[in-house]
Amino acid sequence: MTRTLFPVLTVLFGILVIWFLAVAPMNIRVTLDQAARAGGDVVPAGAVERREASTLSLLLNNRSHIAGGYDLDRPRLPTPTQVGQELWKTTGAMVLKGRTWSKRSLIYHGWVTLQSTFWGFLLGTSVGILGAVLVVKSRVLEMSLVPWAIISQAVPIVALAPMIIVLSSQIGIEGRGFPKALISSYLCFFPVMVGMIKGLRAPNAEQLDLLKTYSASGQQQFLKLRVPASLPYLFTSLKIGIAAALVGAIVGELPTGAISGLGARILIGDQFGTPLAIWAALFAAAILAGVLVTLIDRIQHVLLNKMGMRT
Amino acid sequence: MTRETAIKAENLSLTFQTNDGPVHALKDVSLDIKKGDFVSFIGPSGCGKTTFLRCMADLETPTAGDITVNGVSPHEARRSRAYGYVFQHAGLYPWRTIGRNVRLPLEIMGYPKAEQDERIKRVLELVDLAGFEKKFPWQLSGGMQQRASIARALAFDADILLMDEPFGALDEIVRDHLNEQLLKLWAKTQKTICFVTHSIPEAVYLSTKIVVMSPRPGRISDVIECPLPAERPLDIRDTQEFLDVAHRVREGLRAGHSYD
């Protein structure tokens, strides 16, 4: 654990430094516009001239204003601290105030997205595993299913999502739960299917011949060899699958006019020009993905260790 | 003394069709193996010794000729679980403990649970692995893994044991030890053993009959009855009798192989 912690923290530190430094050039124009409007001393003074000046010259000529870029209400790029504060304001602080499930709480929105993710993951994983089993069992199904599975991933999900919403309400499904889970599973099933096909085909010729010498049935070969041999592959693809399911759930919230969920927060933040809300929702999604992937990783570790497969 | 025939091959041929034209893995191979024989197959790579063993096991289908195992076709013999097969690599399933690896054939053949337990205990004792039942394969040395795979082949009542270079990947000291154990096991169980090997001393030490094979096309170039006594301590390999047989095997190998 400590061995992986150090490199991860080093990279995180590097990202934070770059991010922090980038705030100055990204926000300098907004800062100067605001300062000019407030009657401050800005070089060049005219808005048109400023638009034509390079970012570097603006920074060099207005050094006293750079600090202001780190404290804007609506920055182009918020500082890490601002995002951290916003995250705390919409999560921990809400809990302390007893408003965990308020519409302004990211815990509430995260929970909404998490539910879609869960159902999408469940559906996508089931479809992926079933698809893999069918493909491995039958050459005909392999030739007919695999190309469609690949094509399905080439279709942009953002284009499909509104259609899924419209069609599911057309056939009388109320609410956004089901269509969101469907959109989520659409992204999730593919990595699981690909991983499972590989896993179910992992046994080598000797392992297969051994069962043949016992004149084992096809079902025995499947249950006693192919399934256990596929488990390491399954877990690897489950980790990709759950991250994809989360992305799918968020995408499912974007074009659908949803008002709750992390995707809805991102969209609303964009429409109302509150970048801090977008960034906070973005980080909440990233943290959620990290937690989910780690969770599956732990289950994999415990289960495969118990099965004698060192991970 | 006439003993029953266990395996009989007559003019057996197997040709693989490849992109570079046909490959004659076996050509007109005829052999008679009696019940209780220990037969070694020796020869250079590509002489068809493994292919021959796989034909007996119904893992390959000959393209011409006849072969019977226990008087029936290899397919029927496989169906009736007439043989145990030991592969070159132990081929233990890594997710199963040693005990559960030995249990695998018993599960598949539907033995009752109590009998499975009893058999696992018995065969693990037979190969000197009592107490290792709960260990996973990676916790065992290569030699122990191969012994476990032999136990797995012995767990059910097949009276033929087909072994494809089972000790090929092991160092010489471990191999000597396993050879000695295998002979004891053979004496105890009275099984018919077909044993593929690259090693002349191994073949002479173990066998009652040594089948020398040569490549392109794969065929039998000599069949040598080994006159050594049934009781064979390891130092029998230093006796003149042993060296004479080994010499004959070497001559047979040389004759069947042009070293150009």
What can you tell me about this protein's structure?
- The complex is a heterodimer of chains A (311) and B (260).
- By secondary structure, chain A is mostly helical.
- Chain A has two domains: 76 residues, no CATH class; 201 residues, MetI-like fold, CATH 1.10.3720.
- In chain A, 78% of the residues lie in helices and 0% in strands.
- Chain B has two domains: 176 residues, Rossmann fold; 66 residues, no CATH class.
- The mean pLDDT of chain B is 90.
- Classes of the chains: A mainly alpha (311), B alpha/beta (260).
- At the A-B interface, helix 11 and helix 12 of A face strand 5 and helix 3 of B.
What are the main properties of this structure?
heterodimer, A: mainly alpha, MetI-like fold, 2 domains, B: 260 residues, alpha/beta, Rossmann fold, three-stranded antiparallel β-sheet, 9 strands
Structural class of chain A: mainly alpha
How many domain modules of chain B?
Answer: 2
CATH architecture of the largest domain in chain B: 3-Layer(aba) Sandwich
- Element-level helix/strand string of chain B: EEEHEHEHHHEHEHEEH
CATH topology of the largest domain in chain B: Rossmann fold
> Taking all residues together, what is the mean pLDDT of chain B?
90
Low-confidence spans of chain B = none
Mean pLDDT of chain A: 90
Main sheet strand line-up of chain B: 5-6-7-3-8-9
Number of helices of chain B: 8
> Separation of termini of chain A?
14 Å
CATH class designation of the largest domain in chain A: Mainly Alpha
Number of distinct beta strands of chain A: 0
